[in-house]
């Protein structure tokens, strides 16, 4: 039986590798064809655009620069082709060439200064480049001429929020929430009139698992007002959130929903309450491990006297590839090799599913402790992770649900962020009002994880390692 199973695995692996080789071969054949055409027609705008468009469609880091070169060359040969300029601007922004992006949009606006989509995209590129002042002016210009253009309202809100300007950010975000039917006038009235006590309030999730773990704190605020709180969450979060005493009823979206007097989404409540750095709920921890799992992991790690670090390096791949390349959060495990091979340090894998394959290629001098399939499966998602975290000295994670869980439990956490990060982490900050025990390390340049790791190492060895 074992021999048969191994044979099946080997056959499947060979099949996958053969498919990958065939795919690489097809890509290379297509590239060779485009190279041959460019050699024959070096001044053909269509040839350059077709080549650049193909390379851009691959969405592979090794071809980013080459794709940009050919798209740019095409627009130089046909400077009045606004569609090509728009594609150049969009692609340049995606790969972090923000000045190139703005140059392309500027050329389009010289032909037609009122194209809303171009103005919006230029605002996005400016915001991504850190020029929030100009981006906000551009978004405001769009809204003044097109008051129903939702992307500009959202961009304006997030530009304010990323700078910590919560008053203007929530005011603008209120427009989006109202348009999406998430304003919850009933809940607003109960709170304003002081009649929320005893009312049944339904709170629903939106976004990913990490978003729910981040904003579930608002269920506690509603509960403290005297309401009966029902929360609809993603199924994987049922085990860990069932330990939150401030949630009266916890269900998934496929369960029957109890009756309620008012409802709201968890992610809308920060805007609903117009919170700022002083008022964001920080009654941490607000998520708690199971005592039995806690005792189990304490026993497992009791003989490890090293400085113990939990690491998580890869978010959900499907979610991550849907983002702009400069906003993708996964980091190669190899960046942790130096820490893993340092005497007096033990690294523990907190990784789930995607990314685990990287553990199979560790150098001989690198040890990262990992756990079997039963981890977070037998007792439920996050149940082992939450308990294990309490026996670790530090958690280092990319922007994943694991990072939010660590922050929600008040564990020392270092968060690794890409160049283009979510608004809630605030621009240019190494701390966050959402999690007082969290420290932020963000890319200063797109795709440059090396600089983050260098800064992380310097911080760790200067502030922690020598005193441990």
In short:
The chain has 468 residues and is α/β, with parallel strands linked by helices. It is built from 20 helices and ten strands. Helix 19 (401-408) links the parallel strand 8 and strand 9 (413-417).
Brief descriptors of the model:
single chain; 468 residues; alpha/beta; Serine Threonine Protein Phosphatase 5, Tetratricopeptide repeat; Rossmann fold; 3 domains; 6-stranded parallel β-sheet; 4-stranded parallel β-sheet; 20 helices; 10 strands; 10% strand; disordered N terminus
CATH architecture of the largest domain: 3-Layer(aba) Sandwich
Major pleated sheet: 6 strands, parallel
SS content category: alpha/beta
- The oligomeric state of the chains shown is single chain
Describe this structure in words.
Helix 1 packs antiparallel against helix 2 (45-58). The chain has 3 domains: 45-173, Alpha Horseshoe (Serine Threonine Protein Phosphatase 5, Tetratricopeptide repeat), CATH 1.25.40.10; 185-272, Rossmann fold (3-Layer(aba) Sandwich); 291-467, 3-Layer(aba) Sandwich (Rossmann fold), CATH 3.40.50.2000. With 468 residues, it is of the alpha/beta class. The longest helix has 39 residues, at 2-40. The strands form 2 sheets. The chain has a 6-stranded parallel β-sheet with strand order 7-6-5-8-9-10, with helices on both faces. The chain starts with a helix and ends in a 5-residue tail after the last helix. It is globular and about 70 Å long. The chain has helices spanning 2-40, 45-58, 64-77, 82-94, 98-111, 116-128, 132-145, 150-162, 166-179, 185-193, 209-215, 217-224, 238-241, 269-272, 291-301, 317-321, 337-340, 383-389, 401-408, 449-463, and strands at 200-204, 228-232, 249-251, 262-265, 307-312, 345-349, 368-369, 394-398, 413-417, 438-442. Strand 2 (228-232), helix 13 (238-241) and strand 3 (249-251) form a beta-alpha-beta unit.
